[in-house]
Specification:
There is one protein chain. By secondary structure, this protein is α+β, with helices and mostly antiparallel strands. The protein has one domain (70-240): NADH Oxidase (3-Layer(aba) Sandwich), CATH 3.40.109. 30% of the residues lie in helices and 20% in strands. Helix 3 packs antiparallel against helix 6 and helix 4 crosses helix 7 (217-224). The longest helix is centred in the C-terminal third of the chain and has 22 residues, at 183-204. The protein is globular. Bound molecules: flavin mononucleotide.
Length: 243
């Protein structure tokens, strides 16, 4: 019970106690980069709207949204992937201090990175990629074959044979630089917005998804290749054509 009391406290804000002048931002430390650099091959993505061929209204997309846990073997197109990435993290505007995106983020800190385990996307080798929102491009992290079983284990059986899997990591310092201990809540609230956009964008291109909060932290961090401290997984979502 004490343990639960502690975790409940972590969910609460203590905003009035936050001394912004004492944060790294307040003491003049430089802002961390808005996006991790890419030291491998970059693949520029097509214009995001090209994939949207339906005339599904927003009201119908909202009304019919649901979680999908069974997918066909069908490939997705690169246009569809481009649209889903833009809808979840696409950049609308860059200012000297921040980027403004298709999703909101506390203080426009955008502390999440988007990784993709690509199993079946036409024109893309299978493997691990990372979205570069500022370039609307993919960074090829690692070519991989036969990874689906390992991924399914890390996702505690939530891969569901999907064509691709979104995995979102948090880089907490992007938020802590500005908001110190308040960052925990802000990061998780941000993740909710991102996945909600994924659900709705999937409807637009005949895909389905399922939010995944239950995964093996160590296994998924290791598979993505993050250190589990300065960056770690917070959320995942398989995507495919619903069966
Ligand atoms: C934060 C969050 C975490 C979730 N984690 C899981 C999960 O680990 N496994 C799963 O099968 N569904 C997961 N879901 C999906 C929910 O089970 C699902 O949204 C709920 O049952 C309602 O169904 P619907 O989305 O079809 O309306 C998650 C949803 C949210 C919002």
């Amino acid at each position: 019970m004490q343990e639960l009391e502690k975790t409940r406290e972590m969910l609460k804000t203590r905003w009035p106690e936050l001394d912004r002048s004492a944060t790294d931002q307040g003491t003049g430390k430089p802002a961390p980069p808005m996006q991790k650099p890419c030291s491998s091959r970059k693949l520029v993505l097509p214009e995001p709207r090209a994939a949207v061929k339906t005339s599904l209204s927003l009201v119908d997309a909202i009304a019919s949204r649901q979680s999908h846990r069974s997918f066909s073997d069908e490939e997705l197109s690169i246009d569809e992937l481009s649209y889903l990435l833009w809808a979840t993290q696409g950049v609308r505007k860059v200012t000297p201090k921040a980027s403004l995106r298709t999703v909101p983020s506390g203080g426009a800190r955008h502390p999440l990175e988007t990784y993709l385990f690509v199993s079946r996307v036409r024109g893309l080798e299978s493997g691990l990629y990372r979205y570069l929102p500022l370039d609307h491009a993919l960074c090829e992290e690692r070519r991989m074959t036969d990874f689906e079983q390992q991924l399914d284990e890390a996702l505690l059986k939530h891969h569901f044979g999907a064509a691709l899997d979104f995995v979102w990591t948090a880089i907490p310092y992007r938020c802590e630089w500005s908001y110190s201990r308040e960052s925990l809540r802000l990061i998780l609230l941000d993740a909710g917005h991102v996945c909600a956009h994924l659900y709705l964008a999937c409807q637009d291109v005949g895909c389905g998804t399922c939010a995944v909060g239950a995964y093996d932290q160590q296994k998924l961090d290791a598979l993505v290749g993050v250190d589990g401290s300065s960056e770690f997984c917070v959320y995942a979502a398989p995507v495919g054509r619903p069966r």
